Automatic annotation (TrEMBL):
Keywords: Amino-acid biosynthesis, Aminotransferase, Branched-chain amino acid biosynthesis, Pyridoxal phosphate, Transferase. GO terms for biological process: isoleucine biosynthetic process; L-leucine biosynthetic process; L-valine biosynthetic process. SUPFAM superfamilies: D-aminoacid aminotransferase-like PLP-dependent enzymes. CDD domains: BCAT_beta_family (cd01557). Its cofactor is pyridoxal 5'-phosphate. It is an enzyme of class 2 (transferase). It catalyses: L-leucine + 2-oxoglutarate = 4-methyl-2-oxopentanoate + L-glutamate; L-valine + 2-oxoglutarate = 3-methyl-2-oxobutanoate + L-glutamate; L-isoleucine + 2-oxoglutarate = (S)-3-methyl-2-oxopentanoate + L-glutamate. Pathway: Amino-acid biosynthesis; L-valine biosynthesis; L-valine from pyruvate: step 4/4; Amino-acid biosynthesis; L-leucine biosynthesis; L-leucine from 3-methyl-2-oxobutanoate: step 4/4; Amino-acid biosynthesis; L-isoleucine biosynthesis; L-isoleucine from 2-oxobutanoate: step 4/4. One of its GO terms (molecular function) is L-leucine-2-oxoglutarate transaminase activity. Belongs to the class-IV pyridoxal-phosphate-dependent aminotransferase family. This is Branched-chain-amino-acid aminotransferase. PROSITE patterns: AA_TRANSFER_CLASS_4.
Amino acid sequence: MSVYIDPAVATSLRGFEMPEKLGFGSVMAPVMFRAVCQDGCWSSGELVPYAPLSLDPAAKVLHYAQSCFEGMKAYRTPERGISLFRPERNAARLAHSAERLCMPPVPEALFMEGVRTVTAYCANLVPATSGESLYLRPFLIGTQADLTVSASTSYEFYVIASPSEAYHAGNMRVWVEREDSRAAVGGTGDAKVGGNYAASLLSIARLKKRGYDQSLWLNPGNRQTVDELSGMNFFTVMGGELHTPALNGSILEGVTRDSVIDLARDLGFTVHERAIDIDELLRQVADGTCEEAFACGTAAIISSISVFGDGGESYAVAKAPGLVAERLRQALLDIQEGRGEDRFGWMHPIEPISVD
Ligand SMILES: *Cc1c(COP(=O)(O)O)cnc(C)c1O
């Protein structure tokens, strides 16, 4: 597969100035990768200047939400240059999300070509400060202009990028969401789709007014066990052992979750994947049995949870930031930022391409 490089890309890249303050996901790299799929046939990809999309107002994505995405990062490592973290996992997950929404999966080779090309041309935009990175956002949308309720016959796949700081700093206050659900039984909870996020926004707006940062979502089937946060998976530490909700169809299988489990076991921790009852958990937070709680995801890495709010009550976690969370965060960042040995083969090096 060969990627067409639009000659205007060089001008876009040369004209780009990195702002002093990055934030998360608000500064956009000046180029993007694009491929189209018509009746099941994928075009080859192209790298073009970053620009608004042109969509027909009747495009299926705008009405029936045929839209899924990924979030992943390119890191700058002192010895090994630029690397992506486990990109094949994101390729596989985007394919899974696409299939759930009746969309054609982006072939793994095309996905890899997309993230590799954007990262290679944006190598100068990968920040060097620890915790900062080039955040990549691959996404797939249904573009056919037709209001009948059926799967689109045409799709567009993009990879955009954003030089970013880490998403969350400090401890998080989470709110136990007893009313709304972000996903449904048999729904799209285990797919990374925009609709899940749309369903979470009202809850987040409500809890912000009460001084909280994130919703803690319960399982939509039993409304009693913990699933996850809106964009992060959930862990607790009890008796020095890790506990995380077992995958159940409504939890998104995080690449960070998977990596934390592997890393923790490698460091000698016992990890339990099980159903976590919310009322039992709140009792254990209150009596100190639950020593730590944290959330993890690509954007936030690992962030400690300091308080659980539920109805009129709040429950403070004994240790926030917790030592186990801090140790895992450091061990993960050491691998991602090239200070620690890549003993799981997670890092995928990218050869920079210069336009000068
Ligand atoms: C993306 C996401 C996560 C985190 O997944 P990572 O692969 O670790 O970034 C967790 N939960 C939800 C709902 C998500 O959308």
